[in-house]
Amino acid sequence: MCDTPRRRSVRTEEVKDALSQAAWRGQRKEDEIMKDTVERVTVNLSTNRSVTTIKEKVFTLSEWREEAKKRFGKNPDNWRFRCPKCKREWSVAEYAETKGRDNIESAFQECLYCDWKSYGLLGTMGDGLVVTFEDGSGGEVFNFAEQKKAEE
Ligand SMILES: [Zn+2]
Questions:
Q1: Does some domain include residue 150?
Q2: How many other CB atoms sit within 10 Å of the CB of residue 58?
Q3: Are residues 53 and 107 in the same domain?
Q4: Cα–Cα distance between 10 and 128 in angstroms, integer?
Q5: Does 136 lie in the same domain as 116?
Q6: Is residue 152 situated within a structural domain?
Q7: How many CB atoms lie within 10 A of CB 132?
Q8: What pLDDT digit, counting tens, does each position of 9-58 carry?
Q9: How many angstroms separate the alpha carbon of residue 82 from the centre of ligand 1?
Q10: Same domain, 33 and 73
Q11: Would you say residue 151 lies in a domain?
Q12: How far, in Å, is the centroid of ligand 1 from the Cα of 74?
């Protein structure tokens, strides 16, 4: 009976050990995953800043258009975006209705609902995409909205 506390403490140590080893393995695995799959790219923005983000978030202009078509269909009116600040979503058609047809190029850079602009000082706060141009410069744009096109 008198050795019960000691045993318990040994067990606790064992458990702690096992936990820290598991945590270490878990961390190691995470590091490996990061190293293997996450390639980071730095793009100089036309606004004299640069942004470093994962490769999957960087598109050339034509790649970005293809991605939008894949998600929402060929008609740009149905392309949808999400604000990184207020998280609301809108389509280009909704944007045109409120802001006018002449301003639809702002649909993926200026929020329809709040004042957020993807080319502002804080960009998209990591919740956006980067579109690169032929001269190697780039610009931050809003993320595509989660919502798929209606016919899907
Ligand atoms: Zn907003």
A1: no
A2: 21
A3: yes
A4: 50
A5: yes
A6: no
A7: 19
A8: 556 666 666 666 666 555 555 555 555 567 888 888 877 788 888 888 99
A9: 8
A10: no
A11: no
A12: 25
Ligand 1 centroid distance, CA of 109 (Å): 10
Q: Examine the domain organization and report whether 73 and 113 are in the same domain.
A: yes
Its pTM stands at 0.70
Alpha carbon of 113 to ligand 1 centroid (Å): 5
pLDDT in tens, 5-19: 555 555 666 666 666
3-state per-residue secondary structure call for 119-149: CCCCCCCCCEEEEECCCCCEEEEEEECCCCC
Residues with Cβ within 8 Å of residue 9, at least 6 apart in sequence? none
Total number of domains in the chain? 2
Cα(36) to centroid(ligand 1), Å: 34
Do 72 and 24 share a structural domain? Answer: no
Interval between CA 97 and ligand 1 midpoint (Å): 17
9 shares its domain with 58? no
86 to each of 5, 98, 100, 140, how far by Cα in Å? 55, 17, 21, 17
Comparing C-alpha atoms, which of 98, 84, 96, 75 is closest to residue 149?
Answer: 75
